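Journal club prep, shared notes

We agreed each person brings one worked example of a sequence with its structure written out as tokens. Mine is RNA methyltransferase. I'm keeping it raw so we can talk through how to read the token line rather than staring at a rendered picture. Sequence first:
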Amino acid sequence: MLENPRSPRVRAVAKLTKRTARQETGLYLLEGPQAAREALLWRPDTLLELYATPTAWDKHQDIRDAASEAGVEVAFASEQVIDAMADTVTPQGIVAVARQVPTSVRDVFDGEPRLIVICEEVRDPGNLGTIIRAADAVGADAVILTGRTVDPFNPKVVRATTGSLFHLPVAVGVDLADATGRARSAGLRIVAADVGGEDFVDHRATLAEPTAWVFGNEARGLDEDDLQLVDLSLRLPIYGRAESLNLATAASVCLYESAFAQRAT
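Then the structure, token by token:
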């Protein structure tokens, strides 16, 4: 059992909470039973290390079974070691290390995608994780992240996806002009969520078409140059007294409207 929180092995895992370490190693950190469960079910080939306290391991029979089936061995660790490895204040006794396997933007458009999400300069990890989760929930084909968007392998993003990071392709470091150009060439309409756009309700019928949604920065949205790259800008109406919607909430509404429209045809 690993019991020394200051050992080189523990420190190497803990460093993955930092972007520089993730960039240097190509690895990232998974925390908690949900992340471990989804990784074992959907991408066991990417899991390199799995750590757990004996108590947490005994508690999750399904994770034990999935690890055994995938041929992934667990290294038992004390609670102090798991605390040292984890990014959260109160970890749940299970931590893993996995390889980053982003999707090529070319692969995103190799098929015939009907619903794509493009994030430009989304900076809040919780927002990005929730957008990826929503994209998964509506059956989107992929999520594309520009180079100015927060790292999807940030521990806070990974936790916020609740496993959806393993369910659909995620391309990273893509230029917005390249992403929208490829989407347009693939026959998708490029639609931006923007407070200065046209009323959403007036264009709901167009969402039945193959669509690439573009979501911008939480504070500034999309700048004028970005908006020149899209075919249509839409704003969600506010019927009550709220000043605005959180980006992730607005994105979820937009994506579900597209999913409803596409499945009604």
